[in-house]
Every structure is written in C-alpha cells, then in structure tokens.
Amino acid sequence: MELSDLELILLWQRGENKAFEVIYKRYATRLLGIAMQKTGDRELSEEIIQDVFMCMYKQKNTVSQLSSVMAYLYVLLKNRILDAYRHQLVQRKYEDHLAYTATEVDYSTISTIETRDLEKQLCIEIEKLPPQCRTVFKLSRQQYLPNKEIAALLKISENTVEQHMRKALRLLRGSLLDYEKSLAILLFLHLRK
C-alpha cells in the first residue's frame, strides 16, 4: 500500500529518512522535466532540483503543514528557476562589460605598441639621413634649438639650416609613409586570418 505525502512527511519528521527518499523519487523526475522545459539545460536543471530538495530538507519541521507537497515543490522550483535566470542575466551583463572593457584595453595597447614601433622606425630613419642634415634635424627637434643658434653652432647660414630641415622632413615623410603602408598591409593580413 502506497503512503500519502502527508504520511511520508510525518514519518520523515520522526526520523525515517527513507520517507524523504520516497518523496524525492516521487517528484524529482516530474520536477526535472519542468525545469528542463524552462531552462533548456539539463545540468542546470539537475542542480536546481537538488537545491529544491535541499531547501525542503532544511524546512523539515514546517513541511507537515502543507496541503500539497507537489505545489510546495513547484513554488520552490519556480523561485530557483527565476534565480537562475537572474544569475544568467547578471553574468551576461558582466561578460558584455568585460568584452567592452577588453576591447578598449586592446585598442589602447595596440595604439601604444604602434606608437613605440613608429618611434623606433623614426629613430632608424633619422640615422639614415645625410650627416649634416641629421645633425641639423637633431639639434632642432630633439634639443629644441632655434635655427639661428643651430646656424651659429654649425657655422652655416640660417637659410642652409632651413634647407637641411626641409630635406630631412621630406626624406623622413617619404620613408615613414612607406613604413605606414607596410604596417597597414601587415595589419590587414593579420585581421583576415
């Protein structure tokens, strides 16, 4: 003869743990089916069912006042599923935030690397300038001397200083333009992979 839910609960409250196992076996499969329909995730559904029965187990002393064990378990299930949805929503928001933040960091990191590479390339190209042109450029752009002081220091006219600067800038612009094109091609090829 099969015992009713109320009889099982009373036995369980008196210390008969087998009675709780019977209640578990009676409702776990049905609840799992409901949870699977709602979540679409078997592993999550199984965790939720375990949580539902753990909650019932912790409320051992108050469950005898229930009119329907299935209704009670269903309410617990519904609340746990809603908790799982909320948790997933928070997790998605966090992942979206991380993705957005990571993208910002990636762009700033790429920008920093590109700037460093460009500075290195500029130094290389400066060293390739003709000697007098290089000297004038370094005095002007690295030591910030005015043309008049550069002319006096190198014993050349200000006009010659200006000519060397124009030549240096033209040569550097040309070589860095080639570098930028190469960099753009490499970046394009990298992004296509």
From TrEMBL:
Tell me the InterPro entries matching this sequence.
Answer: RNA_pol_sigma-70-like, RNA_pol_sigma-70_dom, RNA_pol_sigma70_bacteroid, RNA_pol_sigma70_r2, RNA_pol_sigma70_r4_t2, RNA_pol_sigma_r2, RNA_pol_sigma_r3/r4-like, WH-like_DNA-bd_sf
| Parts forming coiled coils | none
* Record's protein name: RNA polymerase sigma-70 factor, ECF subfamily
SUPFAM superfamilies, alphabetized = Sigma2 domain of RNA polymerase sigma factors, Sigma3 and sigma4 domains of RNA polymerase sigma factors
Single GO MF annotation? DNA binding
Query: Has the keyword Lipid biosynthesis been applied to this entry?
Result: no
What NCBIfam families does the record tag this protein with?
Sig70_bacteroi1 (TIGR02985), sigma70-ECF (TIGR02937)
Organism classification, top ranks?
Bacteria, Pseudomonadati, Bacteroidota, Sphingobacteriia, Sphingobacteriales
Q: Which GO BP terms sit in this record? A: DNA-templated transcription initiation
UniProt keyword terms in alphabetical order = Sigma factor, Transcription, Transcription regulation
Gene3D superfamilies the UniProt entry points to: 1.10.1740.10, Winged helix-like DNA-binding domain superfamily/Winged helix DNA-binding domain
> Which residues are in the RNA polymerase sigma factor 70 region 4 type domain?
126-172
Source organism per entry reads Mucilaginibacter pineti
- Per UniProt, residues of the RNA polymerase sigma-70 region domain are 23-88
What family, per the record? Belongs to the sigma-70 factor family. ECF subfamily.
Key word Transcription regulation present in the record? yes
